[in-house]
Structure formats: structure tokens, C-alpha cells
């Protein structure tokens, strides 16, 4: 029997199914069931993770090059002397310390192209850095999403089990919940917001003159956004930033027919 190739509409139906799964699990997560992050991560992996033998839905649907992804990430700066978690905030109450998704941040946000968004650094515990791709794949592949490993990767175990981020409450106790799971919840929101923006349809895109952005590379794939015109930094920070490979990007203002405006780094 000949293999059956899915039609484009069937791929779109698969895409919509996984968005449904992500929305459903996100609601349960917000009700306190943080293990739903495992289900969310599995759908995120199906949508975004590209390998030699498995192509993500964002590629199969043809969305990869025309589906800008909303980055809610706070600015990552490798010169920080303390650990960073750019998609989360810390909440302290009478029961302890907790990581929470930042939801809609008050700071400036951007739309990014797929490779820049998927490989953007979102954790730095001053020993290792982690991108969206790293966190999604750890949760999906090792931590119960689609597979359970009895021995977790050392880096992921340090982040999620051994408090490598290092923050403690006033009683000397670490956060009571999992930072990776909460990052997964924020990544889910980023996808939902991105889909809502995509659904707006046509837009105009205007290049912002004399406003420069770039991607700086931590290694071959992991990266962070940087700008010589939009950020304020010290000479010491600049000297550190210069050690990272640079790829230039263009800053656009993307405006939709309903009047909504977004900054796009492409």
C-alpha cells in the first residue's frame, strides 16, 4: 500500500489540534496543575522541533517563514553577575517562594523569526544557558512529556531539582515549584499571542531607519537579541558583548489593518 501524504488542510488541522491541546493544558496549569507543562511541551515539540528525521508542523504547514513569533523575553545580558530567567518572575507569599510566568510584560517586546525565537536564551544559571528549544525538549523528551528518563541530564537536573538559579526566600528555602514548567507555560502564551497576531491577516512593514538590532551568539545556535541604538549599557558590558559572534538584523514596525502595531526583528 502506498504511503499517504497529508494534504495541506490536514496539516493545518494538526496545527489547530495542538493549539487546542496547548490552550486546554494552559487553563489547567493556571488552575494549579503545573504538571500540565509536560503535555504543553509535547505539543510545542511537535510544532517547533526540527531534526534530520522529524520535521516540525511550523515547517510542514509552510508557516516557518511567515509566522512571526512573539518574544515576551526580558532582556538577557551575559554580563549579569547573577542568574537570569527572562520569561519568569519570582513571587513570595506566606507559603514560600514560587516561579511564575511573566504573562504580558510591561517592558518592550518584539516579534522574531523562527530560528531567533526558538534558540533565544531564556535561562542562565551562570554555569549553563538554556533556550526555548532546550527547555521544551528536556520536558518533552526526559521529564514525562512523551518520555521519562530515570536519569535526567545533569544540566536540566541542576536547574529543576538542585536550584542552580540560586535564589532563596528569607528563611533560606528555594522556590517550591519548577522553573522549567513555568517557562513552558509562558512559551505557550507566546505561541497563543503569535497565533492571534497571525490571524489578523495582512499588514504593512516599515523599516526603522537608524535603529539597529542584532543577534549575538553564545554558541553555534543559542543566541540573544542586542542593539547598539536601543539599549543602554556600560563600557564593561559592551566589552563582554563583543566576545559573542554577531549577525545583523533589521528592525521593522509591523502595522495591521485593525491598528495594532508590533516591532519585528527580521
Q: What can be said about this structure in brief?
A:
This protein is α+β, with helices and mostly antiparallel strands and 266 residues long. The protein has 8 helices and 11 strands.
Number of strands: 11
Main sheet, how many strands, which sense, barrel?
6 strands, mixed
> Span between N and C termini?
44 Å
Q: What value does the Rg take, in angstroms?
A: 19 Å
The level of helicity is: 25-40%
DSSP helical segment count: 8
Describe the strand arrangement of the main beta sheet, using strand numbers: 1-5-11-10-8-9
Question: How much strand content do the residues show?
Answer: 15-25%
**Residue runs with pLDDT of under 50 for 5 or more positions:** none
Order of helices and strands: HHHEEEEEHEEHHHEEHEE
Overall 3D shape:
globular
The helix-and-strand class reads alpha+beta
Averaged pLDDT: 93
Describe the structure using short key phrases:
266 residues; alpha+beta; three-stranded antiparallel β-sheet; globular
Secondary-structure map with pairings?
Layout: H1 8-30, H2 36-48, H3 57-60, E1 69-71, E2 84-85, E3 88-93, E4 96-101, E5 110-112, H4 114-118, E6 121-124, E7 129-131, H5 132-141, H6 154-160, H7 179-198, E8 203-217, E9 223-226, H8 235-241, E10 245-256, E11 261-265
Parallel strand pairs: 5-11
Antiparallel strand pairs: 1-5, 2-6, 3-4, 6-7, 8-9, 8-10, 10-11
Amino acid at each position: 500500500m502506498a504511503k499517504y501524504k497529508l494534504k495541506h488542510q490536514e496539516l493545518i488541522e494538526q496545527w489547530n489540534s495542538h493549539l487546542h491541546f496547548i490552550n486546554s493544558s494552559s487553563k489547567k496549569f493556571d488552575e494549579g496543575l503545573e504538571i500540565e507543562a509536560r503535555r504543553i511541551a509535547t505539543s510545542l515539540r511537535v510544532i517547533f522541533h526540527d531534526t534530520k528525521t522529524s520535521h516540525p508542523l511550523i515547517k510542514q504547514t509552510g508557516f516557518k517563514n511567515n509566522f512571526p513569533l512573539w518574544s515576551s523575553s526580558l532582556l538577557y545580558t551575559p554580563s549579569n553577575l547573577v542568574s537570569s530567567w527572562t520569561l519568569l518572575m519570582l513571587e513570595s507569599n506566606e507559603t514560600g517562594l514560587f516561579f511564575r510566568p511573566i504573562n504580558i510584560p510591561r517592558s518592550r517586546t518584539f516579534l522574531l523569526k523562527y530560528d531567533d525565537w526558538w534558540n533565544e536564551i531564556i535561562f542562565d544559571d551562570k554555569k549553563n544557558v538554556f533556550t526555548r528549544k532546550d527547555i521544551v525538549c528536556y520536558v518533552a523528551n526526559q521529564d514525562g512529556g512523551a518520555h521519562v528518563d530515570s536519569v535526567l541530564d545533569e544540566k536540566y537536573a541542576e536547574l529543576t531539582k538542585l536550584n542552580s538559579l540560586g535564589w532563596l526566600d528569607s528563611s533560606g528555602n528555594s522556590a517550591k515549584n519548577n522553573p522549567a514548567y513555568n517557562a513552558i507555560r509562558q512559551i505557550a502564551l507566546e505561541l497563543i499571542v503569535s497565533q492571534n497576531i497571525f490571524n489578523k491577516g495582512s499588514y504593512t512593514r516599515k523599516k526603522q531607519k537608524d535603529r539597529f538590532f542584532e543577534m549575538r551568539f553564545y554558541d553555534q545556535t543559542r543566541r540573544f537579541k542586542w542593539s547598539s541604538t536601543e539599549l543602554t549599557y556600560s563600557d564593561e558590558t559592551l566589552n563582554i558583548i563583543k566576545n559573542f559572534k554577531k549577525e545583523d538584523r533589521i528592525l521593522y514596525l509591523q502595522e495591521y489593518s485593525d491598528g495594532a502595531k508590533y516591532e519585528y526583528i527580521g
